[in-house]
Amino acid sequence: METNFFNQIEALNLTGDLTITIAKGAECGLVVSVILQNDQCGDNAKRLIPPYTFKGTATELDKGFIETVTTPLKTASGLMVDMEAYMKQLEEVKKQSVIEKDKESKIKKEKEAKDKKYKDAMLKVDELEKAGKYRDAWMKVPDAAEFPEQAETIRKRKATLSAKFSPDLFGSPMDNTPAEEIAEPQAQDNDYPEDWEDDNDMDEEPEQGDEEQY
Known about the structure:
With 214 residues, the chain is mainly alpha-helical. The protein has a domain at 5-99. Helix content is 48%, strand content 10%. The chain is built from 5 helices and 3 strands; from the N terminus they run H-E-E-E-H-H-H-H. Helix 2 (58-130) runs antiparallel to helix 3 and helix 3 runs antiparallel to helix 4. The longest helix has 73 residues, at 58-130.
């Protein structure tokens, strides 16, 4: 006898494995249990989906089996597909969360290492400046391009150090000698030699007898 039972099952387009259990019931009836299992669904909540069970005579089942199971089976099939999609989304979110945490941790470590490098460099600058090695200190000042957030501080520090060793605008090196040490000493009366003659004596008018004749 030809039947289209399996064609009708295939037409349901279910995702998963369909298990049908048929047992004899009371009064010559049949008890049918139908459950759809989807091993691809990673959500353990799928185990809470109960089998769809109904009973009836063989004639009743022949007439209404497909109509009876279509809605619950399609619902269960769609539910487990959605559950799997949801689980994949959760897994992706979890993965992205780990990636973001790793990225944040990496950025934090890089910033800490960069801050330490800057502080160590400036400490070296301080040491050299205290030792009076201004040119060496100037050369040890970090590059502003490497530490843009400290650019203004770096610029001012370099300018301060440069002023302590760079030549002035006229090309002569700056001298830190106190002004009182480089001032010319004032002449004292007793500093002149005894035989020094006053220039005013040279300007005296000659006697009349000594005038030149023209």
